[in-house]
């Protein structure tokens, strides 16, 4: 412990020395914005759109759906203030991060013990994304249709999960959701999956309802949330674009923190995720662009297919972790502050070891970027040095580096660049210095973790189109591409 402290002191001294020898810092102008005010929710999607079947002759489609933010829904139903909504977001974020760390560190899993005895056309489409509410399931969700005729409902989008699932009647126990609970008996496209089928065997934990030869599933999350029910195939509809034969869980017992949304659209790398299941139809590519609601009224979006790959994106290779195939691992090799590499932050801090621990993932559902603690301390100290002209303020929640910017409309702050293998990503100032209350307190939006795993969160991803290209095994970042 003493050796680590001495090393950190030495790194801080070296960084100060580096700055003293540098004629000037690279700076960004931070235009100050207050916490986002909830907006009125747009009208819900209709229960049916002109259907477009999947056929070999269907032309490539470009679709965009209106986006809403979960805080807007929460404000409308609860009357919470902007500060209260932000505090809830940080609570959700802590639960999310702890869930991921538990899985990555081998303390938890995406599935637990089973309750049952074991037994091509190419097109593009896009969908609206809504910033989310379920603590264990991610921060964004979209509205899509399930079944035939399609019933439109909100579903969480989660790059940290694989299994697609919705709440279904009859309910042993179902949580409250915005839309009516799905009734498979009223869908003409609902099909049970047999116990010994390939899809059933791909589940981490599967079971068998023997009397009916139906596959059963159970998925549990690190925060205690879970869903249990029948594994089946169904048609999903995105504004009239039908995606047939999607394997999904029809949950009859769903408990925990998924309040509001009807279920989850798993966007992970696993074999049962939505991108993997539909890979041949959409070229195994998708992307999303998440806006900073405090600074922009533009919508967020998710796009599947060839058009999801931005021409302005810089790419870094996807890294494989055989021990945990759900997450999107990338190689972070350094970070710069004010135009200078931070000493001590090297790729060695972010390596995946032989047990599968460590590494860096890009995650849509975690808000605040968590860095393994030695890297975070070095980054924090470098930023504090570069921002020494700003008036300091008390910490807030998980943030230990905050500033009092009252009376100002803009300030100059050191640049922050994340260096991935083959891709340098320069963050806008709003992506790392954010408002946390209505008293002009702004905090450095990074945090440290004792876990070996680091997470690139969605605050740092704001304004970038983040591209997941499984064909070429790469992740891309295109700045200013949310329009």
Automatic annotation (TrEMBL):
One Pfam family matching this protein: TAXi_C
Active site: 158, 363
Top-rank lineage group of the source organism: Eukaryota
Signal peptide positions (record): 1-24
Keyword vocabulary terms for this entry: Hydrolase, Protease, Signal
Record GO biological process: proteolysis
Database matches in CDD domains: cnd41_like
InterPro entries per the UniProt record, alphabetical: Aspartic_peptidase_A1, CND41-like, PEPTIDASE_A1, Peptidase_aspartic_dom_sf, Plant_Aspart_Prot_A1, TAXi_C, TAXi_N
UniProt keyword Cell membrane, yes or no: no
Limits of the Peptidase A1 domain: 140-478
SUPFAM superfamilies assigned to the protein according to its UniProt record, in alphabetical order: Acid proteases
Gene Ontology molecular-function annotations: aspartic-type endopeptidase activity
Family to which the UniProt record says this protein belongs: Belongs to the peptidase A1 family.
Protein name per UniProt: Peptidase A1 domain-containing protein
Organism, as annotated: Saponaria officinalis
